[in-house]
Amino acid sequence: MEQYYLIYQEANDEECLLTVQPYTDEQKLAEALNQLEAQNITDYTLIKGKKMKATLKVAVELHELEEEEQSSP
Fold first, then answer.
1. Which residues of the chain have pLDDT under 50?
2. What is the CA radius of gyration of the chain?
């Protein structure tokens, strides 16, 4: 049985969501790809391989705004 991983990103002004979805059924994978196309999500990655463990590390740096930057729209 082959394992596939579908990776895609959805973003708007308020949030960004990264999805990694495993599939073992090629028919369900095809349906998922069709749904992405219906949502106009055309950038995605498809990986064929073994089940692996992953760790996501995110770093965010926050800086105070200067007076000038705060008044700008």
1. none
2. 18
